[in-house]
Every structure is written in structure tokens, then in C-alpha cells.
Design brief:
transmembrane, single chain, about 475 residues, about 0% strand, Sodium:solute symporter, Na/solute_symporter, Sodium/glucose cotransporter, Sodium:Solute_Symporter, mainly alpha, globular
Length: about 475
């Protein structure tokens, strides 16, 4: 089937944008201070929490990379496997959520400082900002791609529109407004995908026709990837999720422990719907549009279906991209305010000043994200890079805070440095040998350093003798 763009789909994007901006402005009037801006007054109930967890996690990484690219390039089984890291991550977060709430910190850096000291907080802040700006950047580019593919608007203009929406919605009301728009987007996406699956299978001629039109390797277990290569795609999302500051902030913002647990269970159930749905739709797209860019497989189906169905799917995908972008942008700005500005520039800043500074940082980081996306050829490439920088640099150290009392400050700091250094060495200096993503190297290196330094740290041994 020939891919034909349909400018009428812009109506669906326009309606979505107007609704989101309206909600953002309305909720911004309820922001009472900097804590309310960052943690929504710790008032999130189970349904809003579920929606914001879902919408924050599932963005351009899934729509234009992740499951979409995997299903198109390697087949349905590898794409379905991408759901497993998320499910494992949600279960682990469910276990540690009470501890996260007990810390009462604005940022993951604050949690690390409580265990490893101030230097670790500074290192973590740099890592988080570096990774999160990258994540925001590919949300902007992903938005540009889907508008170009479906409506004919240039990628550059679409990216600018995405950047403007992401920056505005993050700045106008913080988590107070972001959580509400996230919740609406989450439920919209579930509905849009459930409506699309049967429609696109009819358009594609049914399962048998789809299978007959894709390469034979696309029905194999690994899709032609080696085990190590497959792990290189599976592990980044797991290690990002396990230490993701966005998720920690949302769990800390829940109304109470009951709301937190119900919200996480709802998130798990929703992912059991969304992730396979994206995989099957992109796999069907491989049969219909064999020559398109893999990252556009999901969105290409919007022009192959009736306008109403395609428009709903387009609005749903756009909503996930925008909500993920503004969530990570808000989180990165929080690091700058509470880990750097308040600690080193203005310790006595008033609450009003902190709120103004956070909003200013949102704009600055948003512009940076818009600029750096031009340096990455695909959404998937920057997704794997950003995920690994964070997953290797932060996650082993932060999980040790919850699960290993013996870990030492020195071990935490060296683990973070080793995780980032090995990622940069593998990706930049060595140019990713064997097309293996750096997570396969960087996470084991960071974990090994954490363990070895802890076991050999004399300070730790002296503390153990005293406690005995």
C-alpha cells in the first residue's frame, strides 16, 4: 500500500493541543508554591497516579523507537520481549515505593546524598540532567516525525511545535498540571490502541496475510539478533525504570500508601495492554508499508485506516510524546533548582524565588533539548544512549541504598562515575563494537565497581568492627 499523507488529521492534533493547554492553564492557578509545583502537594490519587506513571513512561521511546522499531525491524517476538523489563521494573518499584516515600526527597540525587554524601549528589545531578535532556530531545523529534509522516508538515516545523508544547506544559503548572494531562493522555492512549488493533488487522488482510508479507526471520525468537544484541535492547529500559527520578517523584507525590499501591497495580495492568498493542500494530505495518522508516511503523497506520480511527491514534501517540517530554523536562529542572541552585548559588532563596528559578530552568533545558536532537540520526539511537547513561550511572547506586546496607559512600560515587565513563567509552570512543548497545558493558561495570569498592573499602571495614 502506498503511504499517503492526510492533512485533515491535523484537526485531531489541534483539538488535543487546545485541551492540554487549557488544562495546564487551569491547574496552574492551583499551584501554591515550589513544593506544590514539584510534587503536586502530595495529593495524587490512584487513578491520576496510574495515568501519570503510564504516560510518563510510554512516550516517543515506544511510539517511534522501542516496540515500534523492534517489531518492524526484527519481528513480533523481540518486540513483545521489550515488555518484560517494564513489568519487572514496576514490580521492583512496588516493593521499594514505601522507602521512596519515607525519604521525602525531591530528587534521586537527594536520596543518594543521604547515603553517599554531597559529592554523590553533585555527580548524580549531572548524570540525570544529561540523560533527561536527551530523553526530552527525542520526544520533540518524535513529535516532528509523526506530524511529517501523517500530515505532511515538515519534521523541523513539527519538532518546533512539539518543543513548544512540551516546554509550555511543563512550565505552566509543574506536576500539578502535568499529572492531570498525563492521566487524560494515558486513558486516551489505551482506548486509541484498543480501537486500532482490530481495524489495522482488517486493513492488512488478517494475521495470515501479515505473516506471509514479512521476512521469515521476523517470526523467529530473536529476529536475527544475537543474544547479546537482544539484551542490549532489553536492559536499558529496565535500568532506567529502576532508578528513574520521574517515577520516584510521582510515587512520593501520591496521597498515601494505598493510593501508591493501587496506582502502580493499575500501571502494570495498563502496560500489559499498551506494550503488546504497539508491537502488533507496528508488526502489521511492516506488512503494509515494508519500505518506511522503522520508527514510523506505528504512525503510518493512521493514514491506512478510516480518518476517525487514525485521528484518535495520532492524538493518542502525540499525547504520550508530549506528556513524557514535559515530565522529564520538569524533573531535570528540579535537579538544577534543588541540587545546584539552592545548594551553591542561593541557600536562602525564598519559596517564590525557587518556583521562578525552576520555571526558568525548564525553558533553558527545553531549548537545549531542542538543539541537541540534531546530533542523533534516529529516535532509537538517542533513546538507547540516554537510557544507558542513566541506567548505568544512577541505578546500581540507588538500588544499593534500598537493598544493601553495607554499601559505602566511596563505592556509590565510583559506581556512578564508572557507569557513565564506560557508556561514553563504548558509544563515543569505540563506536559501539559489534552493534552491541553499551548497556551490556556499562551496567555490569558499574555494578562490579560498586561491589568491589564496598568489599575493599577500609572505612567500611572499620565501621563493621565498631558495630560488632
Amino acid at each position: 500500500m502506498e503511504l499517503q499523507q492526510d492533512p485533515t488529521l491535523l484537526w485531531f492534533i489541534g483539538i488535543y493541543a487546545v485541551i492540554m493547554v487549557g488544562i495546564g492553564i487551569f491547574m496552574s492557578k492551583k499551584v501554591s508554591g515550589s513544593e506544590d509545583f514539584v510534587l503536586a502537594g502530595k495529593s495524587l490519587g490512584p487513578f491520576v497516579l496510574m495515568g501519570t506513571l503510564l504516560a510518563t513512561w510510554t512516550g516517543s521511546g515506544s511510539i517511534s523507537g522501542g516496540e515500534t522499531s523492534m517489531a518492524f525491524s526484527y519481528g513480533i517476538v523481540p518486540a513483545l520481549m521489550l515488555m518484560l523489563p517494564t513489568l519487572i521494573g514496576i514490580i521492583v518499584l512496588y516493593i521499594v515505593a514505601p522507602k521512596i516515600r519515607a525519604f521525602g526527597k525531591y530528587t534521586v540525587s537527594g536520596i543518594l546524598e543521604a547515603k553517599y554524601g554531597k559529592t554523590s549528589r553533585n555527580i548524580a545531578s549531572v548524570i540525570i540532567i544529561l540523560a533527561y535532556v536527551g530523553i526530552v530531545s527525542y520526544q520533540m523529534k518524535g513529535f516532528g516525525f509523526i506530524l511529517n509522516l501523517t500530515t505532511g508538515i515538515s519534521v523541523e516545523v513539527g519538532t518546533m511545535v512539539g518543543a513548544a508544547l512540551i516546554i509550555f506544559l511543563a512550565m505552566i503548572g509543574g506536576l500539578r498540571s502535568v499529572s492531570q494531562t498525563d492521566a487524560i493522555s494515558g486513558f486516551l492512549m489505551v482506548g486509541g490502541l484498543l480501537l486500532t488493533i482490530p481495524t489495522i488487522f482488517v486493513v492488512a488482510g488478517g494475521w495470515d496475510d501479515i505473516v506471509s508479507n514479512v521476512p521469515a526471520s521476523h517470526m523467529s525468537t530473536t529476529g536475527g539478533l544475537t543474544t547479546v544484541q537482544l539484551l542490549g535492547y532489553l536492559l536499558p529500559s529496565l535500568f532506567l525504570l529502576l532508578g528513574d527520578q520521574n517515577m520516584y517523584q510521582r510515587l512520593a507525590s501520591s496521597k498515601n500508601e494505598g493510593s501508591s499501591r493501587k496506582g502502580q497495580i493499575g500501571w502494570l495492568v495498563a502496560m500489559l495492554i499498551i506494550s503488546p498493542a504497539i508491537s502488533f500494530i507496528a508488526f502489521a505495518s511492516r506488512s503494509i508499508f515494508p519500505d518506511i522508516d522503522p520508527g514510523m511503523a506505528l504512525m503510518a497506520t493512521t493514514v491506512a485506516m478510516p480518518v476517525a480511527v487514525g485521528g484518535i491514534l495520532l492524538a493518542s501517540a502525540a499525547s504520550f510524546i508530549i506528556t513524557t517530554g514535559n515530565s522529564y523536562l520538569l524533573s531535570a529542572a528540579t535537579n538544577l533548582t534543588y541540587d545546584i541552585y539552592r545548594n551553591y548559588i542561593n541557600r536562602n532563596a525564598s519559596d517564590k524565588k525557587q518556583l521562578w528559578v525552576t520555571k526558568s530552568f525548564i525553558v533553558v533545558l527545553g531549548v537545549m533539548a531542542y538543539i541537541i536532537i540534531s546530533y542523533f540520526p534516529t529516535v532509537l539511537s538517542v533513546q538507547m544512549y540516554a537510557y544507558t547513561v542513566y541506567g548505568a550511572g544512577i541505578t546500581p547506586a540507588v538500588l544499593a541504598v534500598f537493598f544493601w546496607k553495607r554499601v559505602t559512600p566511596m563505592a556509590g560515587m565510583f559506581s556512578m562515575i564508572a557507569g557513565v565513563a564506560s557508556t561514553l567509552l563504548w558509544e563515543v570512543v569505540l563506536s559501539k563494537p559489534g552493534s552491541i548497545n553499551s548497556v551490556v558493558i556499562a551496567v555490569p561495570v558499574a555494578t562490579l565497581v560498586l561491589i568491589l569498592v564496598t568489599l575493599t573499602d577500609r572505612t567500611n571495614k572499620q565501621q563493621n568492627v565498631k558495630s560488632a
